[in-house]
Amino acid sequence: MISVRGLQVGFGDKLVMNGLDLDLYRGEVLGFVGASGAGKSVLTRTILGLIPKRAGTIEVFGHNLDHLSHQERMQVGERWGVLFQEGALFSSLTVRQNIQTPMREHLHLSQTMMDGLAAQKLSLVGLPQDAADKYPSELSGGMTKRVALARALALDPEIVFLDEPTSGLDPISAGDFDDLIATLQRTLGLTVFMVTHDLDSLFAICNRVAVLGHGKVSAVGKIEELLQSTDPWLKAYFHGKRGVVRAGARAAPPPAPHPA
């Protein structure tokens, strides 16, 4: 679904990505981890075209993004959805209007049809219909994440990018959100690229995990494989004081799909 090769991204004299390679396979949930400030969100925004790259190639759905026209890039963008960190809802718009924003941008639908689709997306993420007229300031953290997810699903995407989807949530809400993502991935056949620090999310829903370090993907594989790594950062991450591995305490994630 996505193939990144030799990616180089920088700001001024600082290189954040330097020769990064990464693949995202159809139907999988890929967890993307790394130290704070390593550039996880930068990679996501670079793939989305929000940050320019200095070198390398990014292919999405088999198309090199550098070779696409503006209209073709827009068509690719209609096939993915994004949940930004903290939700990034428009504060002056209601929940319904936030969900309808991608529809207004890319589709030509009547207001009645958009209202019906927004109601459908609310149900899909487990929110009551009376949430539609609320403003972001009236929502809890968990509701904000669900509304942002509903907006990410507005155009029925094939790929969903999730940037720290459980950050700021209490453990129960975070667990519920993991369950929601897993259910949607199975029922809608989504491919998920998830930036996260949440160990529980990695164990619960990820087929593979990729690790960002020193501007490259330093390791990638099933979580069971990464647990055996002798890399100092991985050992500290999975076996440190805040990363105690509770083997068998979580249900094993679904088997990784076979690459097309």
Folded structure, characterized:
- This protein has 260 residues and is an alpha/beta fold.
- The protein is 35% helix and 23% strand.
- The strands form two sheets. The chain has a six-stranded mixed beta sheet, with helices on both faces. Strands 2-1-4-5 form a four-stranded antiparallel beta sheet, covered by helices on one side.
- A hairpin with a 2-residue loop joins strand 4 and strand 5.
- The longest helix has 18 residues, at 171-188.
- The termini are close together.
- Residues 245-252 have low confidence and may be disordered.
Major sheet: arrangement of strands: 6-7-8-3-9-10
Could you give a short account of the major beta sheet?
6 strands, mixed
Overall pLDDT: 88
The radius of gyration computed from the alpha-carbon positions, rounded to a whole number of angstroms, is 18 Å
**Residue share in helices?**
25-40%
